Amino acid sequence: MKFNEIISSVVCIILAFGFSAKAQKNDKPNVIVVLADDLGTGDISHYRRLHSNKIILETPHIDQLANEGMIFTNAHSPAALCATSRYAIMTGNSCYRSKEGWGVWGGYSKSVIQDEQLTLGRLMKQANYNTAFFGKWHIGTSFPRKDNSEVSFISNRQEKKNPRVPIDITKILYGPKQLGFDYSLSLPAGIQNMPYAIYENHEWLKMRDNSTIRVIDKEYMDNLGTDHFNKPGYGDSNWNPSEIGPILANKAVDYIAKNAHNEEPFFMYYCSQAVHTPHDPPTEINGIKIKGTTPSKHLDMVKELDEQVGMLINELKQQGIYENTVIIFTSDNGGLGSDIVPESYKSGHQSSDLYRGSKNSPYEGGHRVPFIVVWPNKVKKNTSSNEPIIGLDIMATLAGITKQKIKENVAQDSHNLVPVLKDKKRAKTRDVFFVQGGANKEFIINDKGWKLIIQVNKKSMKFEDSKPIALFNLNDNVTEVENKNYINNPDYQNKVSELYTKYKETIRSEIFTGNHKL
């Protein structure tokens, strides 16, 4: 070997050692929470293999997480719909504690989170993390009025009938920044609703240099070839949902690279746009072809999501910080049904795996979700737990990882999963838990596998105004076959009464009181 080559090699070794040493300097790990959109357990090949050998689409990067950490096989989203789930995950409080118990759906809706309420961002700021949010927000965003930039536009849903409301969508007045995130790249209502634009640190990020604000209508979206459209509204004149995933993933990779070796560890909450409609996959992402490579546009989006996860993993490894990073992967609700993605089901794919129902349903397929935790050298590889957990457990778990105590009356429904993750003896989660249904206003109580579905009055929408409509014993009927629905069986009326009483007592005593402060 030549002298210059020897010197170069020695320099590289020294730099690599210094680089690695700096990467491991923090005693607190970096943390990335990945929240997929409308992803069921059957959409992940690792989970699907637990019940079937028929795999239509492989998800190698998400499977890699499963092999390198712990999967939960009895994990649930807080609700069977996204906006309600996102509030619960962000705050650690069940949806019914919110002043908007059934969710914030409009891109212009006022934030449902209180000014001083604990959020994931605020929790991690308390632990001296640099915090970042990427993707779908969907818990309320304030924009200025056109006639007064200092005053927030107050949504009264007139934008549903008139897309030309007096609102300035070029900047955000209240959003991720106010809730504890140092950096944000946000979609106020995802890719499916107005405003059809993306924001970096609350400023409109133009899709092209020549972008202007215009009304995005069905004709515009039809010309793009998208398969679903919600309603017309303001957006970027170059709006294209197929470009959003690559933007999010590449910006997230840049963020990791920029913050990998800072004094402070980082926390990233990455809320992918995939696999929500419209299903408009990119031609490629990170050099991998996506569009048209699977049996359906929906599965193209699942493949895109997997590649997004792969990009995050690869960058962590490139920066030498993968071993010092906790990764939590889950979804906001169950997978899409055959009525939404018929081509996927025709191919043999089952988004809900073996479970009954899908997104928006009170049955298990509506709220059973993948949940994977990777924590190198802390969580054993290729392990699993059947303990019941909910997405809102993320809050208390992050507090446990960062060794913080959450005050009483804050994040009241979040359970610290660290003892389970570390396989502590007799570590448990909960026996009784609550999950919210979908647009039909159902509520679910699960007590050691006995599941009561409760119908809330659709007109009053008050949780107390309700009645039981189904009873299943998931211990021997996890698929919820209807001939084992015991709601009208005289032998099980005591169980119905017992569970319904628990539900009413909880709702009456724990309804939102406005005191959920830091």
In a few lines, what is going on in this structure?
With 518 residues, this protein is of the alpha/beta class. The protein is built from 13 helices and 20 strands.
Fold and architecture overview:
The protein has 518 residues and is α/β, with parallel strands linked by helices. The protein folds into 2 domains: 26-430, 3-Layer(aba) Sandwich (Alkaline Phosphatase, subunit A), CATH 3.40.720; 441-510, no CATH class. The chain is 26% helix and 18% strand. It is built from 13 helices and 20 strands. The protein has helices spanning 3-23, 45-48, 60-68, 82-91, 120-126, 218-224, 244-259, 297-318, 342-346, 364-367, 393-401, 418-421, 493-510; strands spanning 30-36, 70-72, 75-76, 130-136, 183-191, 199-200, 203-204, 213-216, 233-236, 266-271, 284-285, 288-289, 325-331, 371-374, 383-385, 389-390, 432-436, 442-447, 450-456, 466-473. The strands form 5 sheets. The chain has a 10-stranded mixed sheet, sandwiched between helices. A hairpin with a 7-residue loop joins strand 5 (183-191) and strand 6 (199-200). The longest helix is centred in the middle third of the chain and has 22 residues, at 297-318. The radius of gyration is 23 Å and the shape is globular. The termini are far apart. 51% of the residues are buried.
